[in-house]
């Protein structure tokens, strides 16, 4: 039996390997999508395949662990937004913060938007995040700073739409999504006298075509 010091060292090594595997998985999912294998993740992390299977039974467990991490981050952003005494500022904080997380982590966008991942994760987002977003929206409506027919689901679908913009233009104009976020925000405010300047220029017709056809060009055949 290992002594206390040896046992602590083993636990520390196990935790370090688990973190190494999660970081590797996050990078691989961002680069290649969710079809990588646990063997791929182990090789990328620089650990043995046996070590990987001791930490995670399969790739699904890796995705679950990463999903939990990311949901905790999104939930924290929503809670910070709800604590903002200014309802418009809180709404803006949530949208910009949640989108910034997706902007910096393509794997998160894929995990949240991939229908193959099942209803359980969708339900978790609904149960953990939706009530906080509802508080943000209802408070802003009560204070009259947004249009009265705005719903929390509108914010969810705006994020979904902007994540698609991110995915299409990441290598061409990575901040383009902020232009359309500004258009949306101006569309829900009730107190503006002028339009907010758009933070980035639009794509040209040629660049738009490039962005819209990039995914199809990557497909084999």
TrEMBL record:
SUPFAM superfamilies, per the entry: Homeodomain-like (SSF46689), Tetracyclin repressor-like, C-terminal domain (SSF48498)
Residue ranges occupied by any HTH tetR-type domain in the UniProt entry: 15-74
Gene3D superfamilies: Tetracycline Repressor, domain 2
Coiled-coil positions: none
A Pfam family matched in the record: TetR_C_43
Keyword Aminoacyl-tRNA synthetase: no
Matches recorded under InterPro entries: DNA-bd_HTH_TetR-type_CS, Homeodomain-like_sf, HTH-type_TetR-like_transc_reg, HTH_TetR, Tet_transcr_reg_TetR-rel_C_sf, TetR_SbtR-like_C
DNA-binding region, residues: 37-56
Keyword terms of this UniProt record: DNA-binding, Transcription, Transcription regulation
A molecular function GO annotation: transcription cis-regulatory region binding
Protein name: TetR/AcrR family transcriptional regulator
Native species: Phycicoccus endophyticus
Origin organism lineage: Bacteria, Bacillati, Actinomycetota, Actinomycetes, Micrococcales
């Amino acid at each position: 039996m290992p002594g206390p010091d040896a046992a602590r060292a083993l636990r520390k090594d196990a935790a370090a390997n688990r973190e190494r595997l999660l970081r590797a998985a996050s990078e691989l999912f961002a680069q290649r999508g969710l079809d990588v294998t646990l063997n791929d993740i182990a090789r990328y992390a620089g650990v043995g395949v046996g070590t990987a299977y001791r930490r995670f039974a399969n790739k699904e467990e890796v995705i679950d662990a990463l999903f939990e991490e990311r949901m905790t981050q999104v939930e924290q952003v929503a809670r910070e937004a709800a604590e903002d005494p200014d309802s418009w500022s809180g709404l803006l904080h949530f949208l910009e913060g949640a989108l910034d997380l997706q902007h910096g982590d393509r794997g998160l966008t894929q995990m949240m938007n991939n229908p193959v991942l099942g209803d359980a994760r969708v339900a978790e987002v609904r149960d953990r995040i939706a009530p906080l977003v509802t508080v943000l929206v209802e408070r802003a409506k009560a204070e009259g700073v947004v249009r009265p027919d705005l719903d929390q689901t509108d914010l969810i679908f705006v994020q979904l739409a902007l994540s698609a913009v991110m995915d299409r233009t990441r290598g061409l104009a990575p901040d383009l999504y902020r232009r359309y976020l500004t258009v949306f925000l101006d569309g829900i405010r009730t107190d503006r006298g002028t339009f907010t300047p758009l933070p980035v220029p639009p794509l040209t017709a040629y660049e738009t075509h490039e962005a819209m056809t990039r995914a199809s060009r990557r497909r084999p055949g």
